[in-house]
């Protein structure tokens, strides 16, 4: 039952509405698969400190800003090597163009390489080196992307999905890779998480040398006095897969939404660039996310917030089971065990809270405190309550840093390289667009 009203009752701290989970060979055992609050709380005792704001800020210089520099340097090379003849709007294969130094960049892939490398480096202290692949064409990232083709099958036809996996798992790696890319994508995530865990088990002190623990370090060193128990190996690997699956596309989608909408709205772009030029006088300097969350970057934050709203996070259902005694929802009694859901898409486009809801209008976030709080409460992009997104701080840091430096340094033209149709999306658990957002990159004039 899809409900648009009682999200405050369902998505709150200590909610009696439990997560619904269908068995899945990759993610069962992970935080996301835990349905009851006590078991969720136990796992979060390990994970929450790792994803806290303080923890993210602490690693930022060696993580985000390093990855961001790599990303920006690649764009810089593209912009510098562009020739006047090679980049013409409407050419079909802009990834090829990108390799030839035409100045056209496949941002769909670029953003995913950035988010995948950032998340993996943060969680495992080891990334895919995807940002260094020519044209951002990382085979592993492409396999992750293909993985979403199976997400809906896994959600709506879990039994068929289990049988399918059983069959595909028996095939050789080469065959899986060639003919079953979505499954191969998930298997790749599983393998990477496992490799990292094995490495840590064999080298228990390696994190203390770098002072940057991975998410597994906390789990491998439980606080026995607090009654903590290391999750099983299988469950830790599932958590590793979960972080890549949950954080890569979601964050990259917001970046794509922002890039498209800003470049399609000259007034918005002019305002954003004006603010960035004022706050970032030297365009080569990389600021911290804390600086970008301070005074002088209000419009930047409004742009990111509006991008989050219209990227829809997980747009379809985020299902919850009604507690066994039943519940009154929207003035009706709903029997216990019924599966209900409030879709993020419906919440984020509620016309009563967001007038002209499909318009990309960062200005709507620059309002009085009461209206801002009301709009903020209505947004469900990261979900809310006990099962809200655990990666919200990592996501915000990535978004503020990337949007600020991307638009400060580069003038990007998407018209002629990306169409409205490319940007229309389908629900594959996350929104998957028809095409890929591409743009011609030039260094912005001072
Ligand atoms: C803009 C980026 C992101 C958006 C919009 C987003 C959105 C969401 C949403 C809506 C949920 C709840 C899903 C549900 O209830 O079924 C969720 C859960 C989750 N997210 Fe995110 N997410 C983002 C980034 C990240 C990142 C960067 C990470 C970590 C690397 C992450 C890790 C998780 C995890 C582990 C859960 C499961 C929490 C639980 O089961 O209690 N997310 N996210």
UniProtKB/TrEMBL annotation:
Mitochondrion listed as a keyword: no
A molecular-function term among this protein's GO annotations: iron ion binding
Entry superkingdom: Eukaryota
Annotated binding of heme, by residue: 389
Pfam (any one): p450
Alphabetized UniProt keyword annotations: Heme, Iron, Metal-binding, Monooxygenase, Oxidoreductase
Entry-linked PROSITE patterns: CYTOCHROME_P450
CDD domains hit by this protein: CYP58-like
Cofactor: heme
Stored PANTHER family: CYTOCHROME P450, CYTOCHROME P450 12A4, MITOCHONDRIAL-RELATED
Family classification: Belongs to the cytochrome P450 family.
Protein known as: Cytochrome P450
Organism: Pleomassaria siparia CBS 279.74
């Amino acid at each position: 039952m899809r409900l648009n009203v009682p999200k405050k009752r369902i998505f709150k701290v200590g909610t009696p509405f439990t997560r619904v989970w269908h068995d899945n060979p990759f993610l069962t055992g992970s935080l996301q698969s835990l349905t009851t609050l006590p078991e969720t709380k136990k796992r979060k005792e390990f994970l929450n400190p790792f994803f806290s704001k303080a923890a993210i800020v602490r690693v930022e210089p060696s993580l985000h800003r390093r990855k961001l520099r790599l990303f920006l340097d690649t764009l810089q090379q593209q912009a510098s090597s562009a020739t006047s003849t090679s980049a013409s709007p409407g050419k079909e294969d802009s990834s090829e163009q990108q390799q030839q130094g035409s100045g056209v960049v496949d941002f769909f892939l670029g953003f995913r390489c950035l988010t995948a490398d950032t998340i993996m480096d943060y969680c495992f202290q080891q990334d895919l080196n995807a940002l260094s692949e020519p044209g951002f064409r990382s085979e592993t990232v492409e396999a992750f992307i293909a993985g979403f083709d199976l997400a809906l099958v896994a959600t709506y036809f879990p039994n068929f999905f289990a049988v399918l996996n059983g069959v595909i798992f028996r095939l050789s790696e080469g065959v899986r890779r060639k003919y079953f890319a979505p499954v191969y994508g998930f298997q790749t995530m599983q393998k990477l998480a496992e490799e990292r865990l094995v490495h840590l088990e064999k080298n228990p002190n390696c994190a203390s040398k770098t002072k940057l623990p991975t998410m597994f370090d906390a789990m491998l060193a439980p606080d026995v006095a607090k009654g903590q128990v290391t999750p099983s190996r299988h469950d830790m690997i599932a958590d590793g897969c979960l972080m890549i699956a949950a954080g890569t596309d979601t964050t990259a989608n917001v970046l794509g939404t922002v890039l498209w909408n800003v470049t399609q709205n000259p007034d918005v772009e002019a305002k954003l660039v004006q603010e960035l030029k004022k706050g970032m006088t030297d365009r080569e300097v990389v600021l911290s996310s804390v600086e970008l969350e301070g005074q002088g970057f209000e419009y930047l934050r409004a742009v990111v917030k509006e991008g989050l709203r219209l990227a829809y996070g997980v747009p379809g259902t985020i299902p919850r089971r009604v507690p066994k005694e039943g519940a009154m929802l929207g003035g009706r009694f709903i029997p216990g065990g019924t599966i209900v859901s409030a879709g993020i898409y419906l919440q984020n486009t509620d016309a009563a809270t967001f007038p002209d809801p499909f318009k990309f209008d960062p200005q709507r976030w620059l309002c009085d405190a009461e209206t801002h709080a009301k709009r903020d409460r209505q947004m469900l992009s990261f979900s809310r309550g006990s099962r809200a997104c655990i990666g919200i701080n990592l996501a915000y840091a990535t978004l503020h840093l990337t949007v600020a430096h991307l638009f400060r340094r580069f003038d990007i033209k998407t018209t002629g390289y990306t169409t409205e149709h490319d940007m229309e999306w389908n629900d594959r658990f996350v929104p998957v667009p028809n095409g890929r957002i591409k743009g011609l990159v030039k260094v912005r004039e001072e």
